Amino acid sequence: MKGRIFNAIIYITLFLMAALCVFPMLYTAINSFMSAAEIQKYYGSLGAPQSNVNPLHLIPDRVTLAGYSAMLLERPHYLMKFWTSLGLCAVIVTGQLVISVLGGYAFSKFRFPGRDVLFFALVAIMMMPYQVMLVPSYMVLDKMGLIGNYLSLILPAIFSAFGIFLMHQIMASVPDSLIESAYIDGAGSWRTLWRVLLPNCKTGLAALVVLSFIDNWNMVEQPLIFLKESRQYPLSVFLLQVNTQIPALGFACGMLSMLPAVLLFLFFEEEMVSGIGYSVIK
Amino acid sequence: MNKKLIVRIAVITCAVLVVFTFLSKTVYGLTIPSVSTAEAERAFVPLSAKATGEIYCESAVEINAGESWRIDELFIKNGMRVEAGDLLFTLDTYDMEMDMMSLELDILRLQNNLDELRDSTNNLKTERLTAPFNGVLLETATVDRKLVQDMYVGRYIDDSAFVVSAAFIESYREKIRTGMKAQVTMPEWMYSVEGTVISVSDSGYIPGRAGVIMVNVQIDNPGALTENEKALVEITAADGEVMLATEPGAVRFVREMLLYAPMSGIVSENNMKNTARYQQGSTLLAMYEEAQTENARSTQRTRDELNIQLEIAKKRLEKYQYIPDGQVFAEVAGMISGIAVKERDLLQKDTILFYIQPDDAPLEVRFSLPVDVGETFSVGSQISAEFNTIKTVDDSTTIVKKKSNSDISKVTLSDDGSVLEFSAQLKETNILMGGVAEVSVSERGEAYDITVPAASVSDRGSKKAVYYIKERNGLFGIEYYVVETEVTVDRGNTNLSALGEGGITQGMQVVTYSSRPLIDGETVKVKQP
To answer: What pTM value is reported for the model?
Structure first.
């Protein structure tokens, strides 16, 4: 009996927490099928003093695809920003994969002077808020003449401390005996990495891909600071602005911006869960 | 979830999004308006207007028909040059001579009739009322055609002097003599003038006023005196005693006479006018006895009618005092223009036949423009006029079109205020007066700081507005959008408009054309030139 009550409490708590997590998505999805007039009617005076507007308008007065039509057909700019973000993320994720694999391999399987110090520094950098690194990053990029260029977003993101740390943790879990066996069989470092380590680190790689993609798909501060022209901004910045300037378009844009991340998560769901869990446990 | 399914979903989603990307680009390109722009800059805004004018010659000599003549032969034509003394035309005088003879006969007949009648009416009595002295007719009564004897007709005064009658005590009788000086004082004004005693009446003169004598004092220089003023009289006796009148006397004119009709009868002459001044002896009124019998009255009426007819006939005959001998010659040298008659025409009195434009007489072109168009132009504005000129080669004249430039010399507003009338001197002289001129007026004016193409100014009810382009960082990058601003147009022609102080400054790009009506703040595509 006590066990059932306890389970019930657990389930209820979990349900509430899940609902809390899912609710914003549900809210966005429902509102994306409302017309601009309805959104303006219910949310237009949000923030105004003594507003009698109900901000949680969950049932549309009239279901319409006007938001999606406006986003997909009336202007090509949203879709152009979508492809810009997708391209940026693809480049960053690929680069991060390469750098993180190599870095994690080096830190986990090689002994060299200062390895621990460097790794400690890496972890310390990883712990620091990104805002702390913004000003030095800006100065370096400015000296390199990359301000206003997409490389100002790509290069810092590629050399991510978290990716290296994650791959280090994943690769460290691979037994050294496997590595030694490969060496004994005559494999070199690269072959060992490619043929022995990476196949054993698929979960970690998947997790890194998803996490990196999500992190860079949602980046806002870096484009605002490192890019000069608004036409260069990725979708994440656009969503930030459209939610304040054109709320009617915000919900529909939000729905479609979720799509790549959701699809990626679903594709790598299994690997990601096990990979995150693995890194946490380790 | 099956990875293959997820891959398929992802591929299909990407394909759909790619299709939508191209589709939306097309739709967007079709819906966003495209505009052409021009820069607001400093420039001149010349104004011009066209009008049809007429050539005038102020000093042209007007040849008109003094009376109603008939032209016999015309020896001139438009553009022809004549010298002083040249024969211009001849008149048909036959009708005039016949008319003159008829009038003379009428006059003779009327005079004979009057002479016969005169004898029968000469015995009627007549009387005249004349001015008794130099003076002024102060009052006149209504004078009808018939008056009865002694009927009051007016009041006549001599305003050359005033008289004051003052009463003194009888004891002063021995001391007051005519010719003595007297001081006449108006107590209200403290105004004093000098007079002369002209008469002294005996005591008891005024009934009921025994013990007083009346002294009349004449004032030759009355100054500001007026009739009926009250004045005190003071006389200084020979022994130095100052004698005062017992009471103020009234000021009156030195002479006054009431006028009456001299007889009963018909008024034949009435010269009486209120406040008119007359000389002594001039006729104020003339009358004659009314005829007592019917025959006499009838004769009188006939006589009156005949007198009137005689006057009319004499007046008609007067015009023939100026009858020409049938030939009309030029009095000045010049060019003939504006011929309005032809041979055998019967002219009306004072009809203008033609003009002679003296050599070197200045010519001007006159034209008018509506006030709202013409108010831009003023004295000094340039004009270009196209008109016909006379070209004489070997005694043959041809019409040649010519263009001349000049400046406006005079501008006046028409009486009704709706039209401005302009005139400009022409340098040419061989132009027919009255000819039509096609005039083009232009005014360059000053340079304006802000001028835009006229196509960029649009009407917003009673006001005017201009769209200009601005850049902004839109959600989708740099985009151009239009801003509507109200403007005032200081001056404009078909190409340019000069704007007053307002929302447009130099260098701004204003919209001159758009593919569809614009909305303030709308995003647009700017066509590159």
So the answer is: 0.47
